[in-house]
Amino acid sequence: MKRNLYVSAAASVVLMAGGPAVAAAAAGADTSRTVPASAVARVDVDAGGAAAAALKQFPGVVESLDQDGGIWHVNVIGKDGVTNSELEVTTTGAVTERNKNRDDNAAENARLVGAKITAAAAMKAALAAHPGTVVSVDWDDDDDNGAAPHWNIEVKAADGKTSNYDVSSTDGKVTVSSDDGDNDNDDN
């Protein structure tokens, strides 16, 4: 028992200092009782963490965010309202820029850039009203249905059901989305 404790402690120290190959060598033949390095390194970034990581890479305002397997796809509009970047954030928080564009029509993004409630604040409001895990965020300023600009937040509850909520971009008020079908979405 003491030997296992010492081996585990030594492997942890070596793993932090020298990586998985060195840790395996330090553990010797007793590696069957250690946790694989890939399991230790996995962080599982949530929607809020993915948004923060994307904004650190490309400062601006999150326009949309959704998860596809272990990758978060985040679209960020620059603070100037003209540039945008499509970013991917992994479960460990690593960010890759996939596409960067310049749109000369800043007026299209003016309401988003000037919104009082950000995507992060909208996620917090939705989760405070309806506990679960955020699986997607979308800015909606399409006034075809007469609604004011708002955030659409999809939340997956503990029972696995997903629901859509609208969060006001001015006061953070959360309402059930009119197109909510309380569907079972097993893609996320």
Q: What's the β-strand tally? A: 8
Residue stretches low in confidence (pLDDT < 50, at least 5 long) are: 1-41, 180-188
- Spell the H/E element sequence: HHHHEEEEHHEEEE
Radius of gyration, whole Å = 21 Å
From the N-terminal CA to the C-terminal CA, the straight-line distance is: 40 Å
User: Helical residue percent?
Assistant: 25-40%
Main sheet record: 8 strands, antiparallel
Strand content: 25-35%
Average predicted confidence as pLDDT: 78
Find the structural class using helix and strand composition.
alpha+beta
- Principal-axis shape equals globular
Q: Could you give the order of strands across the largest sheet?
A: 4-3-2-1-5-6-7-8
Number of helices: 6
Jot down its keywords.
single chain, 188 residues, alpha+beta, 8-stranded antiparallel β-sheet, 6 helices, globular, disordered N terminus, disordered C terminus
